[in-house]
């Protein structure tokens, strides 16, 4: 994802492969960024979602469910890594700024990374 590298992140894994009790999970990518000498580096995992299915709500159910599973496994295996769900600006505006998607953010169920697909830049980090 060029948007992350433009912000100084180094893609370390594509995909980020995890194994938990005999089950394999693959998160789209892992990245690391040096913060400073005292604080060290920040590590993230990013699940990129296009919401290209026939139903926005079904896509939301699948994305949030997958996010919850990934987050729980990351807490056990790589607790220093923060998980983000990456969506394009149109998905953010059409799903996460209204109704159920807004509720998901309000309740802090997911963290979002909103990006512009044309400019390949991160627009917003929502923790």
Task: For the structure shown, list the relevant keywords.
single chain; 4 helices; six-stranded mixed beta sheet; alpha/beta; 8 strands
Q: What kind of sheet is the major sheet? A: 6 strands, mixed
The helix content is 25-40%
Q: What is the succession of H and E elements?
A: HEEEEEHEHHEE
Apparent shape: globular
Indicate the mean pLDDT.
94
Question: Which class do the helix and strand fractions yield?
Answer: alpha/beta
Could you give the order of strands across the largest sheet? 1-4-5-6-7-8
Gyration radius, in Å: 15 Å
Query: If helices are DSSP runs of H or I spanning 4 or more residues, what is the number of helices?
Result: 4
User: Low-confidence stretches at least 5 residues in length (pLDDT < 50)?
Assistant: none
Q: Could you tell me the strand content as a percent range?
A: 35-45%
- Amino- and carboxy-terminal Cα gap: 19 Å
